[in-house]
Amino acid sequence: MLRLPGFRVASPTTIAEAVAALAEPGARPIAGGTDLLPNLKHRLGAPTVLVQLSRLPLRDVEVRAGALCIGAGAVLADLAEHPLVRAHAPSLARAAGLVAGPTLRNLGTLGGNLHLDTRCRYVNQTPLWREALGGCLKSHGDRCHVVPGGQTCVAALSSDCAPALVALDATLTLHGPAGARTVALADYYCADGTAHTGRAAGELATEIRVPLAPGPRRETYVKWTVRKSIDFPLISIAMRFDLADDAVAAPIVAARVVVGALASTPKLVRKLDALRGQRLDDPATADAIAAQVGAQCKPLPNLPYDADYRRAVLPVHVRRGIAALVAAGENHG
Amino acid sequence: MTTPPDQGELTVRFLLNGEPVAVAVPPHWTLLEVLRYRLDLIGTKQGCDKGDCGACTVQLDGKAVPSCLVLGSAVDGRAVTTVEGLRGPTLHPLFDAFDHAVAAQCGFCTPGIVMAAEAYLRRLGRPVTRAEAAAALAGNLCRCTGYTKILDAVVAASERLHGAGGG
Ligand SMILES: Cc1cc2nc3c(=O)[nH]c(=O)nc-3n(C[C@H](O)[C@H](O)[C@H](O)COP(=O)(O)OP(=O)(O)OC[C@H]3O[C@@H](n4cnc5c(N)ncnc54)[C@H](O)[C@@H]3O)c2cc1C
Ligand code: SF4
Ligand code: FES
Ligand code: FES
User: Fold this and answer.
1) B42 and B71 assigned to the same domain
2) Which sequence spans correspond to the domains of chain A?
3) Is the dihedral of CA A122, A126, A128, A129 positive or negative?
4) From chain B, which residues contact A within 8 Å (Cβ)?
5) Number of domains in chain B
6) Are A136 and A144 in contact (CB under 8 A)?
7) Which of B49, B59, B70 to mutate to test the pocket of ligand 3 (most atoms within 8 A of CB)?
């Protein structure tokens, strides 16, 4: 039995009311609660008031002004099946459908998924367990058990949707005391596992926008875990290829590969410019991408599985993801 | 919008197994705690208490959710169905099929599995395949049966509910 600490709740019905409620020191937003409540049961955080977002009008999914616009309160189970999401952002539909298990996807929201706290084998534990180790930078301690001597927490970004949305050049709109602002999701995360989002005090995310593809595109999200359900990602790769025409073997116009479940930010893989003009069904293309991912991305011993193994298989999953896109041929999306 | 410094208990009104109820709950209690410790509905089980096991699964507006991760105050104005809500003048086909297939050993996972299965079968509206049933129950752990008999029972119940012969 895990009891929650004491707090009050606010149930606003408009964004303005929610922003006002969030202005109170110690206030935290709660959407589905599937990340926040387990963490509070483990005494990670001590909010004074939880501002429930579930009554806000933030669930719409629509195409508007050249973008797929998704309310931050949209529920993952709905996104995974939504015809517009499947048509315009199939890798996001896939990522949303791979989060946790089916009952958690009925509660979890996209806004909550993008703000999912970073995870680490040394911190997602009971207080007794953590204290036995003297705590760490993320919980009442002064050291890191993952990087001995390290002064920055490298707990893992474990959101399945964040890498997919960064690969799709998504933006995030937030409302706060100073009004609304929109940021590129690629610039939203920072390399500090104790505070890894650019969310300012009192802000709440309201909308995610994915620009519609300018032309033919193939995209996918690859997740590997030990169990087939419930588990957070141990390998997490989002890939997007813009192509010269709708054949899967058409020349690549642009490629974007983003890897999650490393440290606290989604990692944009660099040096992929040489892929322009190459073809997805050419094995040399998959080899080149896998080599860059292997060279630039180093899984850390922050998650509950062997880091050396995860490093070794990361490029393998890149190749498999591309092979699946090629095998699907023209039946994508 | 300001929240009073001491909220005391909140009165939450919702439909519980089809009947309207009003219950006073501390703001930091989960729906699971409200069901078991305020309403004495102990069919819903408390397992891991953090979303891993599915023993606490109930239906919220007809969808299966883990009640250990829902705040009691969040169900105001909504409909909650627990395993007790499947009681009726005749035995529910899922209960009957679980009994016939011997799909419960210790029985701790059973109420949660039945609630997840019922929500899925109702939405599907046709006989379920074994693979579909397994995917729908992927958030529910059972430490006894090895799942074979649970899937047998869910497939059999779906055939009775939506099969050619009809329920
Ligand atoms: C057993 C288990 C397995 C899981 N597996 C996965 C997995 O495989 N992959 C995965 O990605 N996640 C997983 N999760 C985590 C979680 O279920 C999802 O990430 C979910 O999408 C979180 O959304 P939520 O609405 O429930 O968030 P909440 O718990 O309500 O909130 C999470 C965080 O986001 C903040 N927040 C919520 N909404 C907003 C908003 N609109 N603006 C600003 N901040 C906001 C909250 O303050 C909180 O800090 C798992 C959880 C459990 C319990
Ligand atoms: S990465 Fe280091 S500081 Fe961060 S949670 Fe893990 S052990 Fe703690
Ligand atoms: S008790 Fe709720 S999921 Fe285990
Ligand atoms: S019957 Fe014992 S846990 Fe399933």
Assistant:
1) yes
2) 1-53, 61-115+156-211, 217-328
3) negative
4) 1-5, 7, 10, 26-30, 46, 49-52, 54, 57, 60, 63-66, 68-71, 73-74, 76, 116, 120, 135-140
5) 2
6) yes
7) B49
Q: What is the pLDDT of residues A253-271, one digit of tens each?
A: 999 999 999 999 999 999 9
Assigned superfamily of A217-328: CO dehydrogenase flavoprotein, C-terminal domain (3.30.390.50)
A61-115+156-211 CATH fold: 3.30.465
| Amino acid (1-letter code) at residue A295 | A
Predicted local distance difference test score (pLDDT) of residue B166: 45
Distance from CA of B55 to the nearest CA of A (A): 11
Domain A1-53 has CATH 3.60.140.10: no
Residues lower than pLDDT 70 in chain B: 1-5, 164-167
ipTM for the predicted complex comes to 0.95
- Closest ligand 1 atom to residue A162 Cα is 11
For β-strands A49-52 and A27-30, DSSP reports them as: parallel
Q: What spacing in Å lies between the alpha carbon of A195 and ligand 2's midpoint? A: 12
Residue A204: strand pairing partners: A175
CA distance B127 to A93: 26
Structural domain containing residue B50: 10-84
B29 neighbourhood in chain A, CB within 8 Å: 4
Tokens representing B161? 């509910």
Closest listed ligand to the CA of A150: 2
Report if pTM > 0.90. yes
Distance A42 CA to ligand 2 centre (A): 15
